[in-house]
Structures are given as structure tokens and as C-alpha cells.
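Quick entry between incubations.
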Amino acid sequence: MKNKKNLYTLISIVLVFLFLVYANKNFDSYQIRIMNLCAIYVILGLSMNLINGFTGLFSLGHAGFMAIGAYTTAILTMPLAVKESNFFLAPMAAPLNSIVWPFVPALLLGGLLSAAAAFVIGAPALRLKGDYLAIATLGFGEIIRILITNAQRVTNGALGLKGIPDTTNIWWTFGIAALTIVFMTLLINSSYGRAFKAIREDEIAAENMGISLFKHKMLAFIIGAFFAGIGGGLLGSLLGTVDPKPFNFMMTFNILFIIVLGGMGSITGTVISAFIVTISMEALRVLDSSINLGFMVIPGITGMRMVIYSLLLIVVIIYFRRGLMGTSEFSWDKAFEFFKRLPLSKGGAKNAVTKNK
Amino acid sequence: MPLLKTNNVTMQFGGLTAVNDFNLELNDGEIIALIGPNGAGKTTAFNVITGVYKPTKGNIRFNEQDITGLRPDQITNKGIARTFQNIRLFKDLSVLDNVLIANHLNVKSNFLEASFKLPRYNKEERIMREKSLALLEKVGLVDLRNEKSSSLPYGKQRRLEIARALATNPKILLLDEPAAGMNPKETEDLTLFIKQIRDEFNLTIFMIEHHMQVVMGISDRIYVFDYGVTIAQGTPHEIQNNPKVIEAYLGVSEDA
Amino acid sequence: MTFDMLLQHMLNGVSLGSLYALIAIGYTMVYGILRLINFAHGEIFMMSTYFAFFGIATFKMPWYVVFVLAILLTGALGMTAERVAYRPLRDAPKISILISAIGVSYFIQNLSIVLFSGRPKAFPQIELFTGMLKMGNIYVQRLTFIIPVVTAVLLAALIYLISHTKNGIAMRAVAKDHETAKLMGIDVNKTIALTFGIGSMLAAVGGIMWGLKFPQIAPAMGIMPGLKCFIAAVLGGIGSISGAVIGGFVLGLGEIMLVASLPDLTGYRDAFAFVLLILILLFKPTGIMGEKISEKV
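Done. Structure below.
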């Protein structure tokens, strides 16, 4: 049975791979961009779920960590000529104006700097609990954004950076998303993952079982920030431009929505929900822009998309608090069970009857 | 030297003195009970010993080391484990996970070794699984290891809490009302069980309990609290005949 | 810095501080009773300015009628938000209700983009409030004096309400313990709704005066004051009304003085509040006037 399950897993991986090959060849650039966004949101969702869902820390500073990753990757990978044309108000600070790094080291450094920022922020903030932590991390996220806006000679301030090399493609985003899924799954199922969940369930009991709250909260916070930095770096490279504006609370809100919908504390849920949210977010874009039907034009309503989103968030949290998956994960056994229970399948009905006896 | 000794430990909350000049001595291998009416400050005394609260005054020595003001996790690491009056299991997690978590303090591997399942971690994981299953076997929960801990009946939850505390390898075990909500049969079993784990794990046990049957049956010595003050201490026999204790429990009669 | 400039900045700081105080009271009252950061409070504040704007600019009603209507409507909005998005989650984990609050905040903000467009609107100027007074060598808006006076009057009324009326006592009882308050015959839901109503109406007074003082209103205008006033509430000691007022003044004065004395830091003006928040959380998490709330073990 175990071999069989491994086989299924292998087949699924091959199928996903083949789909990506197909998509890469046949999808248009807009569709590929959405695919890339989906994968990046998987990374971002998982990174936030580790902190908020698995460890139970209500942190709202994610956009700040992403900004650090995005700016680091952008600044380090931009060709010198592009740097010069970007920084027309004030020249870029040395030595940044004369170095160009390859993509991977730049991305990694983005993750590491973001993790370092998490360490600095976490040292005071993780002593706080619940909503105090939420507001403090939100504040730190804003401080990071304000610092970036004011560091004219490093980040080009409010003008942002344009012409970031578009190294990102489907293989980078899905490759890194896959690595993130694998790493998070392994981490969560290790003794450290259990310690994180213990903290989420009951801090006082966890601490009395010998788990250092500060050390483990910090660990989850730093690892989460690392992946948020990586996700931010990929995002910058996908969009080709970064500026401080989008890294506001709205960005954190989007990722929060993904993990709430997927289930706080479920890797499977986050992955599924990252795809659903990203794709539907794009699909709902029609609400914001006008639609030309040939014979008539339906005017778009700016903001309508976010109205629907925020409404959905409230509905999900009130009526489906556990989201799609709660804290459960995908397994082949559960998948078979699910298909057997579908009324259309004959085996299912029979099975149900025999089970009842 | 006693294994654990508190010197004039006092805990105040604002104007309220919940524990007043508490002088506890626990010797190796003893079973000691702390009794007293509700609100007498017994659980607060536990919370001070386990580091949940820092005492306002006094100090706590364990194994000839000053442990006053250490964090709960540090104190557990030194060898003092506890259960809770209002059961604090990791509700959403399985019975086995609850016990495994209490083994985490002995994990030497870092998170990368653990995530990538490197040999050192694999060995640690195997050992902690074996140990946890053995503990669950001991408390009779091994068949329920994959159940959600919150789905267990009350009495079994209490046993799971004890198993979890034992998994931290304690020298001293603090039990906060272990027999609360148990029927007479369960209470009797529990009394035997406490003795049994004391012998098997070389424990010293300090417990808060209201069931006099348990307290008088297994305690070597008893401390009696009233309004945070230690009004009596001694053997079960001495305590049963102490007028102050009778007074605290039954109130003073007018003509006495 | 000349004495006149100093005076000017002081006056600005006091009036900004009074506005912060009015908004911070709403946070502190709701937190005191529900242990919830009402993320939507900044948006409720924003809506009050739109209510006033439409009353005056579109419906051409006299300003005093509009102000009363706007305050009442804002109170109703706050109570509706509580009824729809918070009450169903009363027994849910705290994180759920916080997420719901974030949802409400974004819902109101985006709905107002849809309804009123994202472009800022010019808030009507009312000579009685916005006219200038000459004080020695400086000119000061009348509002600069009106705002602190209004704040002081409302604060006195609120303190009277909380300490001397039946509803006020019910509020304090519910803040201490929902269950016990219920057993004592207090209608907990009604009391919570009333708390939201009062908090929102105070925010509305703040919002209208904000609109007069900074006459440009936009759907996103509630975010920063919202966050800052929450910080003011934490600074003063969350749950304490006098604390919220002190916090509001510290923040308002501090911000103005910082920018006035160190103009190089103007870009960091908004960061000041957050730095202050983090410092207070580190060194005195209960705030200036707050009491310690610890979990029972």
C-alpha cells in the first residue's frame, strides 16, 4: 500500500511537471504571469501560515519582510546602466552602484536580510501576545516601508526601481514553491513543528513542558520572514519594478486572506487557496475595469473587487472559520475516502452500506 | 539537604497576599500534599515554584541551586514538571503528539537537522517515540495514541497530563488536584498509580488535593494553607488531629 | 525657534492631540469591553467625514443639522459593524474576531472608494470654525481652540456617563466579566452595542473636526489616524479613558514637536508613532494608566 501511494505521488508530480511544460509553451504571457503569481503566493502563504497558523502568532508585518526581499533582489541584480538611469534624483550609494549579483545569491541574500530584520523585530515584539503583537508587527512593517521610502540613495525612495531583470519564469517560481512546500512539510512534522503547534494550542502548557517560548517563536518568525523575503524577491523580478507603495498593509491582508481561506495551520489548504485567490483575484479584475461587449460598454467600478474580497473574508471567518482544510492535510487515504463517498460512484454506495453493517 | 526548599516565599498581587512566607521542604522520594480550602493560594504556590509567577519575596532552591525567577521552561529543564488543575492539554493534537512535545526539551538537533531528517535527529526521534509509547502504555492510553487529546474522557485526560509531565524526565512532579472529578474507583486507582510512578521513576511528588482519602492514604507529610498562610504541617496523623486545621475547614463554632 | 513659533506648534500639537484623544477613546472603550482592536474604527472615523460632506455639499443642509446627523449615522454604523461582524464571533478564538475586524475595515474603505471614488474631496469650510484669530504676532484658526474645548466637554460627559449612569455602570460591569454581568441581569449585547455607538460617535466628532482642520477627505484617510490613535490608546493604557486622552496628547504634541524641531525627520513623521508604540510595549506594556491583565493558570 505504501509503495502504491508513493507511486501515486510520483505520478502526480510528473503530471504537474508535464502541465507546466505545456503551459510554458502554449499559455500567453498574461496567463503565465498569473501562474507565476500563484506559485509566489504559495510561498508567501506558507511563510505566513508558519508564523500565524502553525505557531499561532498573530503577525501582520509580512509586507515589510517581502519589501526587504524585493528590494535586495532588485538592487543587487539590476545592471549598472539601469541603476544609473533609475537614480536620476540622487546617485546611488556606493558600493551598490557598482555591483551586480546573479539572481540566486541575490534572492538568498534577500531572504537572509529579511530573516535578520525578523530577528531584530522579534526580539522586542515576540514578548507581546495576541493583538499587541499584531499591532506591533504591523507597526514594524510600516516602519520598514517608511525607511525604504526615505533611503533615497539606496532604494530610490518613492520613485521605486524600474527595469529589474525578469529572471523569474515558471521554473523558478514553481521550483521554489515546491521546495518551500517540501521544507515546510518536513519542518512541521519534526519535533520543532510539534513545538510550534504546542505553542499555538496553549502557551502556558508548552512553556511548562520545557519549550522556550521565545526561542521557538523567534525561530518560526525568522523562517517565515526568510521565505517572505524570497517570495518578495521573486515578485519584484516578476513585475520588473518595485516601489514602496504596494508593500503596505493591503499586501499583508491578501496573504492573510489566503491562509484564512485555506485553513490556518494547513499546508495543503494554503497551496490550494493561493491558487484560488490569485486566479479569482485576476478574474474579478473585470469588476474594476470596463467591459466592452461590442454593442455596449459596462463601466468598471474601481474598488469593487476589494469590496467583494473583504466581504468574503468576513463571511469565511464567521461561517467557515476553519477554512477549506482547517488544520488537516492532504493524504492519499483521505483522497480515496473522499472519492468513495461521492454519491455518483457505485463503489461508494456499496461501501457505505457494508460499513454501516 | 532537601531536594527542593522554598525560603519565606511570598506572592502578592496588588494588595492581596496569595502566598505568605511559605517554607516548603521536599526530600528525595517523598510524597507531600498541600491542602486547604478553595482560594487558599495552593495553585499560586505551584505557579511560583514552576516559574509562572516570580515571587514577591523569598527564594526557591532546587538541588542546591537557586531557581528563583527562572522561566517555566528553564525550571522544567532542571527537573520539575507539573500538571494543571484545569487540564491544559494541546487539545487539537493527538495523544501521542502531546507526549512527544514534552520530549522536545531533550532534542539536541537543530531545526535544519530535524527538517532534513539527518541521522542524529532520526535517532532522537526514534528514542522519543519509543519512550512516549512506553509512557502511554503505562497510563493505559497506548491504544488511543492517534485520537485527538480533547476527545478523551476526563479521567483519561488527567492521565495523559501525567504521562506528558513524566516525558520531561522530572525529579519532582507537581500534581494539581489529580483526583478532581474522579469517581471512588478511579480515585483508588489513581492513589496506587501515584505510588507506582514515584517508585518506578524515582520521583518526589508534591500534590494539591481535596480528596482526603488520597491525601491521607499516600502522603508522607502534609502542608495546610489558609489565606496563603501555612497553618499546619506534619504527618497525616498529626494533621487530622490539629485543631487549627479543623477550624480552617469547618469554621469556628461559637461555643468552642 | 522663536517664542511665537513655539506657541504655534504647541497650539497645533494640542489640537491634533485632542483629535487623537477623541478617536483613541473609541479604541479603548471597545478594547476594554471586548478585548478587541476594532480595526474598523479608522474607517468609521473616515465615514463620518463623508456623511458631513454630503450633508453640506450635496444636500445643502445647515452645518449644525448635518453635524448631528453625521454623528448619529456614524454611531449607527459602528453598532451595525458590531452586530454583523463581531457579535457572531463572540465565543470564537480572538484571532478570528480580529480578522473579521480587518475585513470590516477593508470593506468600508473599499466600499467608499466604490461609492465616493478614490479621489479626495474638499471638505466644506465653515467660517465659524475655520476663521482666523490674531494672537500677538501669529494667526490661529478658531478650530485650534474649539477642538480642545469640545474634547474636554465630551470627555467630561463621558466620564459622567460611565461613572454615574446605569448604562455606564453596566459597561464597566461587562468590561470586568461578561458572564457575571449577565447573571446580574445586564443585557450584555445591548451594552456592547452601546459602547460601539458611543465610541463611534466620539470618532465622528473627531472626524468632522478633522475635516475642518485638514479639509481634504479620501477613503484611505482613516488608516493612519486609526493606527496612531490605537497607539495613543496603548500608550495611555488600553481600557483607560483618561489614559487614551493622555496618550492622544502625547502623540499629537510629540509628532508636531518632532517635526518642528528636527525638520530633517519630516519623512519619518508617521514612524514616530510606531517607534513610540514599540518603546512603550517594551518598557511599560500596560501603558501610562493601564492595569495588568494576566491569564489565569
